[in-house]
Structures are given as C-alpha cells and as structure tokens.
Design brief:
The complex is a heterodimer. By secondary structure, chain A is of the alpha/beta class. Chain A contains 16 helices and 19 strands. By secondary structure, chain B is an alpha+beta fold. Chain B is 29% helix and 17% strand. In chain B, helix 5 runs antiparallel to helix 6. Classes of the chains: A alpha/beta, B alpha+beta.
C-alpha cells in the first residue's frame, strides 16, 4: 500500500497546478488515467482571462462573469477568480508559457464572448496546450511523482473522512490502495455523456461520480454548456477565438443572423445565447443540410488566420476538408463544458473532510448557469493553486488515522463479478443509446415531457448496464473494462443532469426550458444540490452568494 | 461515401504471445473518418479486447501514435481513405518501442529521456516581462511538439532524441531563458545534434516540425558561432 500526504487525481491544468504547489511542502503523488500531456486541458484553445489593460479592472471582469453566469455564480468565488487573475497569468508566463505578444512585447489580449474588454491572454489558439505543457515542465522541475495510466476506482471514506483511494494500474493490471491525508480530485468534465461533444474521449466524469458515490454534493449539474461552434461531423472545437478575431456566423441566406438575437454583441454574445440562436436557425430551415451554419473567416485573410488561428485552420482542413481562408467552416452546437460539479468552497473543500476538488469537476461556483470563454483555464489554475495550498495545511493538521480493513477485496470481487464472460449488452451499444438520448432530450432546448422521458429511459439503461458482463481479459490495458466503468459513471451523472433539469422549472443561462421560458429569481435563484441515495438523487436548494451585483435583466 | 476497409491489427498479449500476430477486422465506415474512429468502432462493437491508446481525437494530445501501413502517424488525424486505397490498412505498434499490449508501447524511457535537457524555462534574472513578437515567432512553431513519439521510432530501438532536440531549440532560442546557448552545448554532449538520426529515417512530424529544414541548420549555425 502506498502512503502520500496528498493524492491528486487528474493531471490536467488543475491537478498539475495543485500538485506543483502542494509538493513544495508535502509528499504528493498524482495519478491520472492518461499521461499528463494527454489530459483534455490540452484541447482548450481560446485563452485565459485577466484584467491587465489600463481601462480594465477586476471589478469589470467580475461583472461580466456574474452577468454571464445569469446571476447564479457565487460572487465571493468570482471575486477571488477575477482579483487573482492578473498575478496568476503573470506567474504562468514566468514559468515559461509562450503567450502571444503585442508589438510592445507585452502579453497580447483578445476579446472573447460576453466580455466588454480585450481581456483574454492567449497563445495563438493553442492556449490550453501551451499551459498544460508548461505545468508539466514545472512538474518535472519540482520532481512531482506521477503515476500515469492509473484509473481511480473508489474513494476511501471512513467516518466521513476521505483517506485515499483505490486505483487500477492499467499498465501492470494491478489494484492499488493509496492512503492519503488529503485527496484532490481534478478529474475534469463528463462531455462524453452527449453524442455531440468537443470533449476528449477521456472526459467521462469519473471523479464527479466517485465523489457523488462517496457522499459528496453535486451542484448545478443541469447546467451544461453547448459550445456554438464545433465542427460539423466530428464536433472538434472551433475556438471562440475565431469569432473573437472577427469571424461571422452566416445562415443559408448569407445573413449574419446574430443581429436578430444579440444586436449589440453579435457573434460575441455568450455561448448559451449563440448556441440557441444557431439551433433556432437550423430548426427553422435556415441552416445547411438541416445540420449546421457557416463560420466565415474569409475576410480575416490567410495571414491573420495563420498567425492567430493556426489550429482552427489545421482542424478545418484536416477534419472537414475546408480551408477557412477560402471557404466558410461548417459548425453546429456541441456539448463543451460542465458548469456543475462537486460542490466546494473557495479553497476546494467539499462536504467530505479531506476531499478537495478543483477545475471542471468542481463547482465553486464561478460560472453559475453559463461560463464565459477564457474563464475555465483561469479557474483551473487559480483554484488548483488554492487547493494545493489548502492541501498542505490540511495534511499538516491531519494525523494518519487508524486504517480500516483493506479496501481492495470489495473492489476485486466487484470486478470479478463483472468479468464472468460476455453477457448482455456491449458497453458501446448502451453508450450510443445514452449519448443519443441525452443529446435529443437534455440538449440546448429542453421540455418537461422530454426530460421525464429521458429520466425514465436512463433508468432502463441503468438496469441493462447492471446486467452487462465482460469477458475475463485480466486488468492490464483492459480498455473494454475501463469504458464499461466509465459508462456506469456517466449513467449515474446523466440521471442527476436530467432530473435536475426536470426539477428546475425556469430558463437560466444554458438551461433553457421551452415550457418555462423565463428566469424565475423568486424560486430559482438557488443552487441545485444533489446527493446520492439508492433510489436516485435527493435534491435540495443551496444559497447563492450575492455581494456586489444584484440580479438584473441580462441582455446582449 | 462508405468505405469497406479491413484493418490488419497487431495483437500481442505478453502473457500468451512470444511475438506479434496480425488479426483482420472488416468494417464499413464513412470515407472521411479517421483510423482511430475505425479502431474505436472495432473495440466497441467487434472485439473489446483490442488495446490502443487514445484521447483527444484532434491531434493535440499525442496519445495515438502507431505504425500505419509502415509509417509512424497519429491514428486520429490519418484518414481511412488516405491509407486504405486498396481497402487494407496495417496497424502496428510504434517501431522500436517495447510493446506492452497490442498497439500500446512503453513510452516511459522516451519521456524519461527528456529530463536530461533541463526541459523547463530557467528564467533570466534580468527578464523585464517583454518578448518581441518576432522572438516569439522563432520558437512558436517548435513549441507545438505533442510528445507523441512519432519521431522517436527506430528500426530496432526507439529513441532518436529528436523530441529532446525540439525542446532544446524551444528553450535555447527563448529570450527569457538564462541557459540559452548553453543548452546547445548540452545537446551536442548528449549526441542529439546528428542528422539523419539513422540511415533510412523517414518519420514525419504530425505537427509539422521541420527537423531537417529548420531545426538542425539553426542549431548547427549556433554551434559554429560558439566555436
């Protein structure tokens, strides 16, 4: 059995930031189901927000974020995010991040959606890639211990205190218990629950579901971000930077249709607004092939596209056979981000002692009902760092507990029972049904009857899932087993998302109910809390922190 | 357009096999789909035991490097139609790497080797926070190495050191870096500055880093200057 002061799960931006901080004065290990530089953070493109300009301020950043969140974001947390952003971005730069520069040699900034300023620092359209590799390098520099391709199967929680976890070492095919005084979950989102998603195959919500299973509160799970511009066909992300640099959205009549929906901010209205607008255009037969609209970059010229949007160009050419300097890019909304997650405070602390969370898997909540572009990477590094700091303090205060019985036996029995020879559905079949169901009935537009059907269908899928048996192919690199476990976690979360969406009878941010089109602050200016029971999620309301900005109408 | 393809995939179970065997899988897929899509289709609907690495499916994570019809490539950005003209696509683990299972290879020695070149920025004490766009442009394109291992393939043994060389370049020409040219001496000492890394080397960087055209000449020019 392994012992560490701090066990970090996930090696994306949040996990690596937490680990590099915590490893300065604690014994830290990172486990990750993929090698660190494969983490989904590498696919983030547009940039990271910080109020650096002389006319900008953290208060303005905070206001844009609060308004963007449709007033559901917690203002105490958003204040932390925006106040600490400039120092954090400068720290990343000094670690080596290759940010794009202006002619003066300072960090260049561009405008992303929902912001009134050019506030987003960027590395062309490869910002997540650049930051992830920078933090990976820092991990090497500080000698952070990393266990790649270790897949967390369970959190060990005894008497309400988290004491570590059990992981499957995919390379050796071994189960390992890791005892820790503090566990930091930084396991990202669950995008693969939806058929159309920009997310990597690895984004299956494992950490959220494991925490939920262990008794943690999931919050605001019904708020799912659909990015307006994912590439038609494969849904790879086409960065918001494409519109930030001046790209237009056009329907099949060649109209810049955003003037109907957001006449001031046009294409740079927040993502929830733009995604709905595109969906309406397609629904009302002003799209192409009833599937997509055009993102037109031709007027930017080949040179600017090459300099500012090299990855967008590469992706469009490679995956759609379209050179954006010559031809508009076919785009459609696709799942992109989870505003909801494991409920925590500004130091990553959950309702389970010893369990901290950071990044997309967490809900602190800085994004409320809709996240602004450039704020997710910011969240990962700021709250990753704070969680790392808190982990050090907690580890210092905590004594090694008396350990209960070995936790491996139960898990081994569960896996053995699963692998008694192919029976029932293949995980891939159920996954296809689940992702289609969630896309159709819990997507950009929602309705009570659809949501109720989705809840019922998910229950049936759950039953079929329980009946799945796999061939006994051992544990080493058994990706069929891993995808099966991932499917189980996704089904668990899908139920919370669908039920939460059914329960919230209003429209706010990314949650749009056709049968309840208005925002209802009187009833629903609250967080949705969900805790697991054997009969499904038990819901309650949580308070929203409102400090500086009172809820107001949200127009763009 | 649908395409009939047969994937001939290398299988290797260290507990049972002494050498790689090839297994055929036939399926129909849209022409525009990638090799990785076909592998996932097989894993999900034909043979769950097939092992291969994957994640981002957009050429930025670097998980899915493998030999595709004899050439090292990323499966997620290689079109079925490109390689499967006769309908047959051969998939093998990255050449020269130790095979762990099927298409999965041991990349730890490769990642470990990077540590020798001090793969992080050593900030100059007099750095004033500025870097010109021109100075950035010098290193930006090389900074795109995704550590996929494609350029590390060898006939019998992996480890050309080209990824280390790319990292060396990226930091040596970084105007913020305190080591700067010292890094090139280190690269020479480590024997990284040779081209081609071996006779018959034909790997192409999936991210377009030009070793022969750009990197090697620039680094060699600097070595000459130093002498």
């Amino acid at each position: 059995m392994l012992h560490y002061d701090v066990l970090v799960v996930g090696a994306g931006l949040a996990g690596l930031r937490a680990a590099t901080v915590a490893s300065r004065s604690a014994n830290v290990a990172v486990i990750s189901k993929v090698y660190p530089t494969r983490s989904h953070s590498c696919a983030a493109q547009g940039g990271i927000n910080a109020a650096l300009g002389p006319d900008d301020s953290w208060e303005k950043h905070m206001f844009d974020t609060v308004k963007g969140s449709d007033y559901l974001g917690d203002q105490t947390a958003i204040e932390v995010l925006c106040r600490e952003a400039p120092d954090e971005v400068m720290a990343l730069e000094r670690m080596g991040a290759l940010f794009s520069r202006d002619s003066d040699g300072q960090l260049a900034q561009r405008a992303l959606a929902g912001a009134l300023f050019e506030r987003t620092c960027y590395a062309a359209d490869l910002t997540g890639f650049v930051l992830l590799h920078t933090l990976y390098e820092q991990g090497l520099r500080h000698g952070v211990k990393i266990y790649p391709e270790w897949y967390l199967l369970k959190l060990i929680v005894e008497d309400g205190v988290c004491q570590g976890g059990v992981a499957l070492d995919l390379q050796r095919g071994q189960l390992e218990a890791i005892r820790a005084k503090v566990v930091v979950l930084a396991t990202g989102g669950y995008g693969r629950i939806f058929r159309k998603t920009s997310n990597s195959h690895s984004c299956t919500g494992d950490g959220m579901a494991l925490a939920y299973e262990a008794g943690a509160i999931l919050s605001d799970m019904e708020f799912v971000q659909f990015h307006p511009t994912t590439l038609y066909g494969c849904n790879i992300l086409i960065s918001e930077a494409a519109r930030g640099e001046g790209g237009y959205l056009l329907n099949n009549r060649g109209e810049r249709f955003m003037d109907k929906y957001a006449s001031e901010q046009m294409e740079l209205a927040p993502r929830d607004v733009v995604s709905r607008s595109i969906a309406i255009e397609i629904k009302e037969r002003r799209g192409f092939e009833n599937e997509y609209v055009h993102l037109d970059l031709r007027h930017l010229g080949a040179a600017k596209i090459e300099e500012r949007l090299p990855q967008v160009k590469d992706i469009a050419v490679r995956y759609a056979g379209v050179d954006p300097a010559e031809t508009p890019i076919p785009v459609q909304p696709g799942q992109h981000y989870s505003m909801g997650g494991i409920r925590c405070d500004e130091w990553g602390q959950t309702n389970i002692q010893g369990l901290l969370v950071a990044g997309e898997c967490a809900n602190v909540s800085v994004h409320g009902a809709n996240r602004l572009g450039g704020n997710s990477m910011l969240e990962t590094v700021i709250f990753g760092r704070r969680t790392g700091q808190r982990a050090i303090e907690l580890a210092r205060q905590t004594r090694w507990p008396e350990f209960g019985p070995q936790p491996l036996a139960g898990i081994r029995a569960y896996l053995d029972e699963r692998m008694t020879g192919q029976r029932g559905d293949r995980p891939g079949v159920l996954k296809r049904e689940m992702t289609g169901l969630m896309m159709d009935k819990v997507g950009v537009f929602r309705e009570g009857s659809d949501l109720a059907e989705a809840v019922a269908e998910l229950r049936k899928l759950r039953q079929r899932y329980e009946a799945i048996r796999l061939p006994s192919n051992g544990l080493a690199f058994n990706y069929e087993l891993v995808t099966c476990l991932e499917l189980g976690w996704m089904l668990e979360l899908a139920e919370v998302i669908a039920q939460g969406a059914l329960r919230r009878t209003e429209s706010r941010g990314a949650h749009c109910r056709l049968d309840y089109p208005g925002r209802d602050d009187e009833r629903w200016l609250v967080h949705t809390y969900a805790q697991r029971s054997d009969d499904g999620p038990i819901f309650s309301d949580g308070p929203v922190s409102i400090t500086r900005f009172q809820p107001a109408e949200r127009g763009y | 357009m649908m395409l009939d393809v047969t994937l001939q995939v290398a299988r290797f179970d260290p507990d049972l096999d002494t050498e790689i065997r090839l297994q055929d899988y036939s399926l129909q897929m849209e022409e525009r789909r990638m090799v990785l899509d076909a592998l996932l289709e097989i894993r999900d609907f034909q043979d769950g035991s097939l092992a291969f690495r994957y994640s981002c499916r957009s050429g930025i994570g670097g998980s899915c490097a493998m030999m595709i019809n004899g050439q090292p490539k990323l499966a997620c950005q290689t079109k079925l139609a490109e390689v499967g003209k006769d309908g047959l696509i051969r998939l093998e683990p990255l050449a020269g790497f130790r095979v762990l299972r099927d298409l999965v290879v041991d990349i730890d020695p490769f990642l470990e080797s990077l540590k020798a070149i001090v793969p992080w920025l050593v900030l100059r004490p007099d750095y004033n926070g500025r870097m010109s766009p021109e100075a950035l442009a010098e290193i930006e394109a090389v900074g795109i190495c995704v550590l996929c291992g494609v350029c590390e393939v060898g006939e019998t043994q992996s480890g050309t050191g080209l990824a280390s060389l790319a990292k060396t370049y990226r930091f040596a020409f970084d105007t913020r870096d305190a080591l700067g040219p010292e890094r090139i001496k280190l690269a020479v000492d480590l024997g990284l500055l040779k081209w081609p890394p071996y006779e018959g080397f034909a790997a192409e960087c999936p991210k377009g880093i030009e070793f022969e055209e750009d990197l090697i000449p620039a680094l060699r020019a600097l070595t000459v200057q130093q002498e």
